[in-house]
Amino acid sequence: MAQASRRDRTAISREDFDAVVFDLDGVITRTAEVHFLAWKRMFDDYLSEWARREGRKQEPFGSQDYQHHVDGKPRYEGVKAFLASRGIELPYGTPEDGPDKETVCGLGNRKNEIFRQLLREGGVRVFEHAVDLVRRLRDKGFGVAVVTSSKNCKDVLEAAGIEDLFDVRVDGLVAARDGLAGKPAPDTFVAAAERLGSRPERVAVFEDAESGVEAGHRGHFRLVVGVDRVGHGPELARSGADVVLTDLAEVEVRA
């Protein structure tokens, strides 16, 4: 079979698709930069404490750490993955752990406190072309969902003024309630497709995280679009993206 042209691969038509699923941070909203700052502040503080205690230097948390170990994953899984990359092992703890507790959950909760503080101080900006794409899809009758591992999804959408933009929301709270595995497992994307009354082979996924792209690929979605905001297009392609875009204005919506 001849490969579809790039134009066809960046077009969403009613003939081939029923619905579209979007990641939130880094695709719709510019909260990825806020998440990165929160992760960096939390991890850099912890690594400094750890280095003083253990007498072994640790490099600060960087953008590559964020992309490879944290971005797109449930918060506690991100903590665990990054610490493992630095050879640090902590007790997992419980989600009720306070932010001062030295456990995976405690560090995750510490990061969330920092994130919410930054959110209150700076608000939320959106990617205008992404919001425009969602509106164009809605106008043509496509179902649209937002899927994120964040448990702050509702707050972020409200802060950005787009809380009514999506038909379905599958976030970290829904995943915990329904026992859905986080990305790179495809469970949350599949759940969103089902809630939109469709199935993966009729749904497109837009993701900026390598773990999210892998989830779309593993879920056998008809189209997985990697959204490259930070120059990691090759990594998105290797993770399973069918096409990589830097600007969602390139996407055509066909009735």
Automatic annotation (TrEMBL):
It holds the Pfam family Hydrolase. Its cofactor is Mg(2+). It comes from the Bacteria. One of its GO terms (molecular function) is hydrolase activity. Its EC number is 5.4.2.6. Signal peptide: none annotated. Keywords: Carbohydrate metabolism, Hydrolase, Isomerase, Magnesium, Metal-binding, Phosphoprotein. Gene3D superfamilies: HAD superfamily/HAD-like, Putative phosphatase, domain 2. It catalyses: beta-D-glucose 1-phosphate = beta-D-glucose 6-phosphate. Belongs to the HAD-like hydrolase superfamily. CbbY/CbbZ/Gph/YieH family. PANTHER family: 6-PHOSPHOGLUCONATE PHOSPHATASE, HEXITOL PHOSPHATASE B. This is Beta-phosphoglucomutase. It comes from Desulfocurvibacter africanus subsp. africanus str. Walvis Bay.
